[in-house]
Amino acid sequence: MTKKRNIVVKIGSALLANLELLTPRYGFLQRLLEDIAQLRAEGTNVILCSSGSVALGLRIIGETPESAGVSDKQAAAACGMPLLLNAYKQVGHEFGFDIAQVLLTLGDFEDHRRFLNTRNTVHRLLESNVVPIVNENDTITTEEIRVGDNDRLAAKVAQMVGADDFVILTGVDGLYDRNPDEPGAKFIAEVEDVGMYMDATKGKSTLGTGGMETKLLAANMAQEAGVTTWIAQGEVDHPVSSVLDGSRRSTKILPHPNPLSGWDSWIANRLQMAGSLVISDSLAASLSGDRPIRREDVISMTGDFTRGDVLHIYDSKGIERARGLSDFTSEELRVLTSNPDTQAEQLLGYRTKGEVVRSANLVMLENRHLLWDAPEEIVGQV
Ligand code: GLU
Fold it and tell me: Boundaries of each Aspartate/glutamate/uridylate kinase domain copy (predicted)?
């Protein structure tokens, strides 16, 4: 049996909520879900990642996009989510399919066991021909534990399900080499290296939380996992299929020709930094995926992490060289590094080889990866 094509479609708040009234835009939903029904009829699995819960809930709690603070938005999301899902459910039924709500938080992506559990659930829904509608569970997520934007959340979903295509529907027709309102802005139809455009894309949308910058960060995650990303205006008939068949303008971000394995892609594509290490320059120069990072290699560290968290590994200049899964908690590692002459077993009370990151759990970063700035604490130290 051939594998079904999987696509993830991310839909921005401004398409789903009327900017003035903050009510659902049923006309848009009709056009979107008619197209999705058609794609499904052609044998494609579709997963939607939908924003809009905050925008749709604001009026109920007497707030506006401008007036709402963090806790207002959390309350608004609780009010808006049923409205949003109800709209999808009604219109989905018109086109003959069922939808399901999948609310996720940062931990569902960053913790590998939860990542796999979530993936199983999404696949189970697809097996039953139900369209999963994914959103962040904004109501219960505080600043420290949230993804924050649905662009990267949707990219993680695309990676999770091994999507073929990731379509980001938004209010602009794609990527420009500078702010599209500036004279002379040039449209970019195809991108290989998103790093070239990161500086040109600062700025945010009015209703959602993302902007072109988060879209490019998302596209970078997708390309690492072998997924093709498309950024396009959503306000048209057949908003998804017209992008995929190339019949209208969009920005296509190419998948990397040698994508990372599922495991390496999970390690390398982070949403939040749990902790970081600085290693010696000599080790940084010779570091490869075949050699572990040992306790004696660690010059300094930051963060409060647990076993199984991914660490960002820097050289002494603060340049990120690798990411890898920690075999120790930050407490254990602090004890190990501050007592270099005492055996690990004696310090920790269990047998261990003292490998902080095993070679199988280490991913070397290359030019194609967007590197993270080193936390200030470690830049100051080196
Ligand atoms: N989760 C937010 C919402 O449902 C949207 C976040 C975003 O727009 O990126 O309103």
Answer: 7-231
Which residues pair with residue 104 across a beta bridge? 136
- Ligand 1 centre distance from Cα of residue 32 (Å): 18
Does residue 122 sit in the same domain as residue 152? yes
Q: Could you tell me if 45 and 171 lie in one domain?
A: yes
pLDDT of 378 > 90? The answer is no
CB 13 near ligand 1, within 6 Å: yes
For the Cβ of 35 lying below 6 angstroms from any atom of ligand 1, the answer is no
Give the number of other CB atoms < 10 A from CB of residue 231.
27
Q: What is the pLDDT of residues 313-342, one digit of tens each?
A: 999 999 999 999 999 999 999 999 999 999
- pLDDT tens for residues 189-208? 999 999 999 887 776 555 66
Ligand 1 centroid, distance to 82 Cα (angstroms)? 14
Examine the fold and report which residue of 225, 247, 264 is the final residue of a domain before the chain moves on: 264
Both 200 and 298 in a single domain? no
Task: Tell me the binding residues.
Answer: 10, 51, 138, 150, 209-215
Distances (CA, A) of 169 to 51, 154, 241: 11, 12, 12
Question: Per residue in 154-166, is it b (16+ CB within 10 Å) or e — as a string?
Answer: bbbbbbbbebbbb
Taking the CA atoms of residue 133, residue 138, residue 139 and residue 142 in that order, the dihedral angle to the nearest 10 degrees is 150
**C-alpha span between 249 and 54 (Å, rounded):** 29
Q: Are 150 and 182 found together in one domain?
A: yes
- Residues 87 and 162 reside in one and the same domain: yes
Q: Which atom of ligand 1 is nearest to the CA of 210?
A: 9
- In this structure, the strands spanning 310-314 and 320-325 are antiparallel
- Index of the ligand 1 atom closest to the CA of residue 205: 8
Instruction: Indicate if ligand 1 lies below 6 Å from the C-beta of 138.
Output: yes
Among protein residues, the one with the nearest Cα to ligand 1's atom 8 is 208
How far apart CA 191 and CA 184 sit, in angstroms, is 19
Are 161 and 98 contained in the same domain? Answer: yes
- Domain interval for residue 340: 273-379
The pTM score is: 0.93
